[in-house]
Write a structure and sequence with these properties.
The protein is mainly α. The chain has one helix spanning about 5-45.
Amino acid sequence: MDYSSWRNHGCRLFSFMHKGYQFLTLENNLLNIANFGLRHKSITSSL
């Protein structure tokens, strides 16, 4: 393999990893929001 094909492969891999990372952080944010909503609901119902 020459350098340009290696570089193209690396760019593809990097963009794939970047997309996966964005997806994971999005999923974590949704989980945090859900947990916060559940906590908030339990606090307001106990008042």
